[in-house]
Amino acid sequence: MAIPEDLFFRGVVFPYSPHRGRYNLNFDDAVQTCASQDAVIASFDQLLEAWKDGLDWCNAGWLSDGTVQYPITKPRQPCGGTNSNPGVRNYGRRNKKTSRFDVFCYASKLKGHFYWLVQPDRLSYDEAVQACRDDNAEIAKVGHMYAAWKLEAYDRCDAGWLADGSVRYPISRPRKNCSPTEAAVRFVAFPDKKVKSYGVYCFKAYQ
Q1: Global pTM?
Q2: CA–CA separation, 148 vs 134, rounded Å?
Q3: How many Cα atoms within 13 Å fall on the side-chain side of residue 61?
Q4: What range does the domain containing 89 cover?
Q5: pLDDT-based confidence at 8, cuts 50/70/90?
Q6: Does the pLDDT of residue 60 top 90, yes or no?
């Protein structure tokens, strides 16, 4: 059955690897990981549309059909070679239990409000979680940030905690000291959760 054309414009595909590092997910882990970020594992058609829209990522990730692929818009040596053409590189079907890669997730339109929580001080991870709770919200997930960035042009040059323990920030207007060359969700790190060096992004679901 054909996928409705407007499906691709109601969501965003994003690459994901867990805090323990790249290429650590079998297929079932990949499905669960996307679900934990309020997303689903992406289909090939969704990844293809994301590539057409400029997604460039050199780490291979699972897709919903059990294949492992990655999108390249700027060919370079570590990603298929400088003489290769742009495209979606395909590793084919891999063993769902023993093979380990990253994953491409698909987050649809937000059903709530994603926002930076203004706080007087920088927070540890536990303090960030509690600060969102105190604001009658939850600490935001990676899928929330990508959806807000891509679908709502959310832009903030402040690194903040997310629910998976990562620190990221979304830039839709590239500029010096934020993301000078491209619009992107910038990954900072999976820092020690006791470090008080970051703010927090929260998510409040619609009632």
Answers
A1: 0.90
A2: 22
A3: 32
A4: 5-106
A5: very low
A6: yes
C-alpha–C-alpha distance, residues 70 and 140, integer Å:
26
CATH number for the domain spanning 179: value is 3.10.100.10
How far apart, in Å, do the first and last CA atoms of the chain sit?
34
Give the amino acid at 60: A
* Alpha carbons 98 and 188: distance in angstroms, whole number: 29
Q: End of a domain among 106, 121, 144?
A: 106
Give the residue-averaged pLDDT of 102-109. Answer: 95
The whole-angstrom separation of Cα 73 and Cα 57 is: 8
* Confidence category of residue 81, pLDDT binned at 50, 70, 90: confident
CB 139 within 8 A of CB 163: yes
Cα separations (Å) of 86 from 8, 52, 57, 83, 200?
20, 10, 11, 10, 36
> Can you tell me the distance from the alpha carbon of 51 to that of 87, in angstroms, rounded to the nearest whole number?
7
Residue 25 neighbours by CB under 8 Å, 6+ apart: 17, 18, 33, 62, 100, 101, 102, 103
Strands in 64-175 per DSSP E: 67-72, 87-93, 102-108, 112-116, 138-139, 160-161, 167-171
